[in-house]
Amino acid sequence: MTMVLVVEDNPVNRDVLGRRLERRGYTVRFAVDGPSGIVAAQTQKPDIILMDIGLGEMDGCEATRRLKAQPETEAIPVIALTASAFETDRRKAMDAGCCDFDTKPVDLPRLLDKLENALHASRALAVTSPSSMAG
Predict the structure, then answer these.
(1) Which domain holds residue 56?
(2) Which end of the chain is less enclosed by CB atoms within 10 A, N or C?
(3) For the segment 45-62, what is each residue's pLDDT rounded down to a tens digit?
(4) How many domains in the chain?
(5) How far is residue 33's CA from residue 51's CA, in Å, rounded to a whole number?
């Protein structure tokens, strides 16, 4: 089963998104801020991360940069989630290492498409990467 780590500080958003993903067959884990999201990614090894950008002291862009700087988490795809639809926010998230960007409130069919596309691209990359061919 595909594991999704949802890094979201709003408990209502966490609950609603988590239940909606679980109903579609995903295993969902949660983190409430950037630092706990980094730890959860390192320890739980999710297949993909949905990262709220508007977190507390460490925003989602900084948490993503830190994940992408670590060998054990750099390959995990991260989709940014934010209430802001400005192009500058999208660019900031992409520059931080996110593979995609979506706005809140979440349009679930659109988010699921982005999630599956990111997972497919990540799995395809893993199959063709030189490190996966060593052995």
Answers:
(1) 3-127
(2) C
(3) 999 999 999 998 999 999
(4) 1
(5) 9
